[in-house]
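Researcher: Good morning. I'm working through a list of sequences from a screen, and I'd like to move beyond sequence-only analysis. For each chain I'm collecting a predicted structure so we can compare shapes side by side. This is the next one on the list. No need for commentary yet; just the structure.
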Amino acid sequence: MEILSRFLLLLLLSSSLVFAATPSIVSPDESDDLLIRQVVSDGDDLLLNDEHHFSSFKKRFGKSYANPEDHAYRFGVFKANLRRAKLHQNRDPSAVHGVTQFSDLTPAEFRRTHLGLRPLRLPVDAHKAPILPTNDLPADFDWRDQGAVTAVKNQGSCGSCWSFSTTGALEGANFLATGNLVSLSEQQLVDCDHECDPEEQGSCDSGCSGGLMTSAFEYTLKAGGLQREEDYPYTGTDRGACKFDKTKIAASVANFSVVSLDEDQIAANLVKNGPLAVGINAAFMQTYIGGVSCPYICSKRLDHGVLLVGYGSEGYSRIRLKDKPYWIIKNSWGASWGEKGYYKICRGRNICGVDSMVSTAAAIHITSQ
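Model: Good morning. C-alpha cells for this chain:
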C-alpha cells in the first residue's frame, strides 16, 4: 500500500511538471488575442479587426503611404507580419514578439534597409585575443552601470549597423582609457571607410550597403581615429563625400582582435576590455518586443552588427523552469524598439550565431584640437 501511495504521488508530481512545462492549447481566436495583447495598448478593444490594429500601428510609428495601392500592399505585409510574429512567439516563448516599427516591411526589405553585416565570416588573418582567466567572473555584469555606453542610436533605413557596432566598441574602449564617454561618428565610417578583406572578394566596407567591424577597426587604425558625433553627424545616407578632419579626432584604436567562440572567454573579454562588437542573425529581431530571446531554431548566418554590453540571468525560462542566462545587446534601431533599444538573447548555445563573430578594441585617446 505504501509503495502504491508513493507511485501515485510520483505520478501526480510528474503530471504537474509536464503541465507546467507545456504551453496551454488555445483556440485560434484566443491565440490571436494573446498576440494582440502584446502589440496594442491596454485601452484598445481586443475584438477590433486588423484594420484597427494597422491604423494604430501607423499612428504609433508615424507611417504614411504614397497612394491607395501602396497602402493596400503595406496592409497585406502588416497582416503577414502579424502571423510571423505569432510564429516567432511559438518558437521563442521566453521572449515577447509582436508589432514593431518594422511590421510593414517584408523580410527582404528589412534585411536590405536595417541590417548590413558582411561578409559572413571573420578575416582569416584576424588577430586572436589572448586567453583570459575566467574563474572570478561576476555573475552579472553591465557596462551601462559603469558609464561606458552612449545612448541608443538609430541607423535609419541604411545598412550601416556595422558602423554602430564599431563605434560602440571604441566608445567603450575610449572610456576605459580616458574616463570620458564620447559619442563617436558612424557617418565618418559610412562616408570614408572602404577597407577590404583581401581574402574575401567583394567584402569591402560599403556604407549603407554593409560592412564588417574588424575592417572598420582597421580603417580607424590607419586613419588615425574617429571624430565626435557632433563634429561629423549621422545622415543615414552614403551619397556624400568623405569629410574627415584629422585635426578633430576624438578617439583612436591602439589595437583590435577577435575573441574565442568560448562563452566564458567572451564574458572575460567583455568585463576586462569593455563592450564588444558582435555579429548576429537578426531574423527574430524584426518582431522582438522584450524578454529573453532563445528560439528553438535560429540560423547562424550572420547579417547584423550589434554591441555586447553585459550579461545576466534573470530571464525566466519555460523550458528549464529556472532563470535563463542571457547576453545584453545594444542595438541601433532607436530606443522605441525592443527593451528601450536593447535585446536580450540567451547564452550557452551560440543562439543565432551571437558567439561566432566577436571582436574587441583597445583605444588611445587623442585630444581634439
